[in-house]
Design a protein that fits this description.
Strand content: 15-25%
Structural class: alpha+beta
Radius of gyration: 20 Å
Number of helices: 6
Length: 224
């Protein structure tokens, strides 16, 4: 309705009022988007269904998700390093999609806290096959300010956040999904010579003892 109002009045008011109109409409639209995200996060945490675990090509799922993080619509670029040796994991494709989105968005938000004009390194998402434990390691790294020590102790608790407008449910949802999958999750800061280089979140996801369903290796790409 706000956007329609702006369109109807566009060109019919003096330039000064036009600028105020455009700014006001943008504020309304941005705040509605923020409320939508907040409501969705509460819903996702409260109503997270039981995981339907099936063999899943995690690399294919990541490649599909990354189509939404192209240069044209990503505030911070994302780079992928996917291990071709990874076996299928036993996972719920929709819930793993949500994990990937939450981790990438958290990493992008962290890097946007950097000072204006500073070159932003890409967020890194990696997979690695761990044959000794028969697990696939999924890792997302950023070059932001890292986790404060008090947050590291409570990062998976609901409503714990460093973001001014955050709900603190992003990592709580990830932890809940990880538990459903029997996955181990760790968070920490990457430190070199006493300097924090950024944050890192990793999940160790059990591999499937069954092959991917025939002709469904790209099933992850068909999920929405």
């Amino acid at each position: 309705s706000a956007e329609r109002l702006e369109m109807k009045l566009s060109g019919k008011v003096p330039p000064a009022e036009q600028a105020i109109l455009a700014k006001s409409v943008k504020t309304i639209v941005d705040q509605v988007d923020a409320m939508k995200r907040l409501v969705n996060e509460f819903r996702d945490y409260a109503r997270l269904p039981s995981a339907r675990l099936q063999p899943l090509d995690l690399n294919a799922l990541i490649n599909d998700v990354l189509q939404l993080y192209g240069v044209e619509n990503a505030p911070v670029p994302v780079r992928a390093e996917l291990d071709p040796e990874c076996l299928p994991v036993l996972a719920d494709a929709q819930q793993m999609r949500q994990v990937i989105h939450n981790l990438l968005q958290n990493a992008q938000d962290a890097q946007q806290q950097q000072t204006a004009g500073e070159t932003r390194e890409p967020v890194l998402i990696q997979t690695q096959w761990r044959p000794a434990t028969q697990r696939v390691r999924l890792t997302v790294c950023d070059t932001g300010p890292g986790f404060p020590e008090n947050i590291l102790q409570r990062a998976f608790e609901p409503y714990v956040t460093t973001k001014p407008r955050g709900t603190g449910l992003g990592l709580a949802v990830v932890k809940k999904i990880a538990d459903e999958h029997g996955a181990r999750i760790t968070i920490g800061n990457r430190v070199q010579d006493g300097v924090v280089l950024g944050a890192q979140v990793s999940l160790l996801i059990p591999a499937s003892d069954q092959p991917l369903p025939q002709d469904r290796g790209a099933e992850a790409g068909t999920m929405s």
